[in-house]
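User: Run a structure prediction on this.
Assistant: Running it now.
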Amino acid sequence: MSLKDLEEFLNIFAITWDKRGDTLKIRNDFVTNSSSSSFVIAFKDPKFDEDTLKKYPFLKGFGKSIEEILLATGQYNETDRGIIVKSKEMYDELFLGEHGWRGKTLEEILKDGYLAKIYNEAIKYLENGFYILDKEIDYSDSTYKNALRNLAENNEDMIVILGED
């Protein structure tokens, strides 16, 4: 049985394997038979000084191009467009919508150390002028996953906060 087969089998019974902590968790909230990975990416809108823009006018649209790459959907079913948030209030709403099943409050959700770590890191980046992309990428969409990782590699203006394999 492959790792993916094992994960799909466990998912049928609402059990997840947390590879980071090497533990099994039984979920009692919303359960999905997803074949995608969650990505949370912090990024800054690229800014160029006037001299650079005069010398290289094509850079005027560079930020929009990066945003379109980040929001691209793939040829695979579960690579979604994603959501870009630009404020703590927007991220709170998104985070609560994703993890607030059964009426849980943000405070209750953040008792989970793993979720708290993702949330706190995203908020830290938002407070420092970054935007946050929340996106699902199909397991089969390795080209897109690799492109995102390559964009973020050695790039202080783009950080992968969460990117499961």
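Strands lie at 15-18, 23-26, 36-43, 83-85, 131-138, 158-163.
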